[in-house]
Inverse folding.
């Protein structure tokens, strides 16, 4: 956020460094699905790191490497401690899906 500022709209994510999960390996273009109110759309992001380890992604996040779309539970203690801030709070990613 210090380098590129805080995005005000998801369309600005293409200008920011983003961290991605292994779900995005080998994809030519990456878009994050986000919704706000009744509006749902896909927004292009610029990947600077892709990892399969959620803890590694969280370390990158804490080091300021880029933005990460993740579950609130994973980062809530860092948000509460002021180490992380939520960006685009009026926009939400897809709900986590649970399988057994």
């Amino acid at each position: 956020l210090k380098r590129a500022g805080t995005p005000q709209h998801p369309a600005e994510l293409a200008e920011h460094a983003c961290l991605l999960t292994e779900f995005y390996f080998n994809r030519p273009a990456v878009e994050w699905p986000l919704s706000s109110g009744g509006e749902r759309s896909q927004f292009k992001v610029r990947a600077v790191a892709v990892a399969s380890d959620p803890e590694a992604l969280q370390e990158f996040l804490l080091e300021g490497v880029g933005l990460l779309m993740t579950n609130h539970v994973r980062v809530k203690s860092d948000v509460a401690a002021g180490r992380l801030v939520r960006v685009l709070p009026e926009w939400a990613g897809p709900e986590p899906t649970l399988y057994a």
